[in-house]
Known about the structure:
Blueprint: E1 2-6, H1 11-24, E2 32-36, H2 39-47, E3 52-54, H3 57-60, H4 71-90, E4 96-97, H5 109-113
Parallel strand pairs: 1-2, 1-4, 2-3
Amino acid sequence: VYLTASDQGYFVTLLNWLVAVDLNTNxxxxxxxxxxxxxxxxxxxxxxxxSTIYININELIYHHFILRWTKAYAWDVWMVRIAVVRxxxxxxxxxxxxxxxxxxxxxxxxxxxxYPDSDIV
Length: 121
């Protein structure tokens, strides 16, 4: 399973990333889960049959007042990502987290297969 995350600010980057995955790798789009931090992105991805999980960070982590793109918001995003990774591992799946700014120019699977017991590459 491959995991990435996006909100409205990275939606165009997400689309470019998905195209690059499709063109440059042997990763099946069905093996990708996108954490959607915006309801609109979630709805669009569901219509395109892309696996996605909608997470409203403000419902999970309460802040009296927080703006996007602050250090606290970025911290919250990472905490949610880690929790989802742990949950997917608990269900028995191996997971690879790939950030949207890591555009796949080659297939990463052969490199990952060289280190089957690695936790971090």
